[in-house]
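Students often ask what a 'structure token' actually looks like in practice. Rather than answer in the abstract, let us consider N-formylglutamate amidohydrolase, a protein of 263 residues. Its sequence is given first.
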Amino acid sequence: MQDFIPFEIIEGDYDKGMVLLADHAMNRLPGAYGGLGLPESAFHRHIAFDIGIERLTRRLAAMLGVPAVLGCFSRLLIDPNRGEDDPTLVMKISDGAIIPGNHPISREEWDFRLNAYHRPYHRAVERTIARAGAAGRAPLVLSLHSFTPFWKGVPRPWHAAVLWDSDHRAVLPFLELLRQPGDITVGDNEPYDGALKGDTMYRHCMTTGTPHALLEVRQDLIGDEAGMAAWAERLAPVFTTLNADPTLHEYRIFPSRTGPYPA
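Now compare that with the structural description of the same chain:
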């Protein structure tokens, strides 16, 4: 397991002041875990990773020439987009699938997964954001995720969505730019609420006053090469426009809807 690297940094021009993140980019596990007792088919489902996001993030990083950080382990092992004290950090059941390798789990194993996978990923995110802001100008951080087209049999009408807590600076122009062509339905804090204490945006952006937004794209739209490429072409100019706004390169702390920040 020591040979398993839990993150990948895609190098780019840090002076451009933009960082892309993909917490749930991959569905991989260290060999010692086998499949956590699950069939291989489970690792092709959304419970294991965000379908389409790895390729989309790589394409956008290349098109924009900016750095990105990818999570290299499945969220079934430990979820990098959860706080360390979140009870859903290591899931026992996910969308009806029982995960035998996660239940029961000892305190020792819980701590091992934090130290071996979760914390190294977040240290990589922290280093990358710090390097992009080394000149004293806040970087714009954009986190990429994907969501299922159906939930419990109910179709989700959104093609994409922007999730956020209370820092609206990047979110409002982001929503406007995504909606401008008029050909897609864009959710605002749908199908999830972006205020989650301890998650990646909370930890690296809300608490530091770094401008940011989290984008969700529906998985069926980016599940193949053509769809992914089309969305990269759609998003690249939007990201460029956002990054050109000087107000999105200033540090400003907003209170979180989840409550006071840790002292």
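One point worth highlighting: The radius of gyration is 18 Å. Ask yourself how you might have guessed this from the sequence alone, and why that guess would often be unreliable.
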